[in-house]
Design goal:
Layout (H helix, E strand, L loop, with lengths): L22 E5 L2 E9 L4 E8 L20 E2 L10 H9 L1 H11 L30 E6 L7 E7 L10 E4 L20 E3 L8 E7 L2 H6 L1 H6 L4 E3 L12 E5 L5 E6 L13 E6 L2 H7 L9
Parallel strand pairs: 4-7
Antiparallel strand pairs: 1-2, 2-3, 5-8, 5-13, 6-7, 6-9, 9-10, 11-12, 12-13
Amino acid sequence: MRFPALYQSPTTEVDLGFSGVPQLVPFGNTVMASFFAKSSLSLTLVHLSASLCLGGTPASPQATPVPLNLTLAGQVQVTGSDARSADFNKNYLPVFNKIINDNLSESVVFTNASGFKLDSSKLFLRMQAKETIRVYFLAEGAGYMNTVGFAFTPAGSPTPGSPRVMYPNASVGTGKRTVSAPIRAGDFVEIGKGGNGWQLDFFLIGDAFNLWANEKKRKANDFIWYWNDVEKNSDGTQHVVAFALPNSPYILIGFEDLFGGGDRDYNDALFVVDIGIENVVSLTDDPSTLPN
């Protein structure tokens, strides 16, 4: 199990010298900030354009290319690079690390897996999240370079939502980031707010980043997808466990990446999803069965 050290990025304040409240308007990968600047003659609308990333600082390098040419949910952001992430690192990351150490130790079979299995019929958003849903990557004990992503399915839709990749290479390391180990504990991706009744599914594609990078391997191997819904898995096996942290907006998800269930330790990709406390409550039938 690899738990890389946290990296706290510095915060830089920039005074643009304009009065009023800026209105941030997403425009592709650019954020348009509009200010009303006072002058002696009139109120002038000033547009400032910058290649900013809402919600953090992009990590470098990003893992590319994205396997199977799937759509990328967004860039991976550096752990602790905004106030929301720093709060998670300080107040919740140690709690989840303890849950992992107590329940999902490397190569130790998680015998209570069935009791924590995600039920696809219950993995719905009760409401649109008040804040953008974030996925914080914590750790992995995999020998593979797995690809991890999600899909939103709107309420009442007869077909699944389109898969989007959060972590093209869900591999962590220490020291300098590399494409082969681009993630650090607490790095996060924002995936949108969803909608009332939308179903949220997660998937892992075994060793996809490694296979996709090598043309010979790409042609010779099947890409095996594992979902939180057992019925979607070609081996008919549970590959996901989940913990909800009471009185918080977070759920912890762990994946097993081997066909047939492997060593069943469910720690080959471990991440926390901030879906809002109301949505967590709606997924919880009996709070007394959850870990303290």
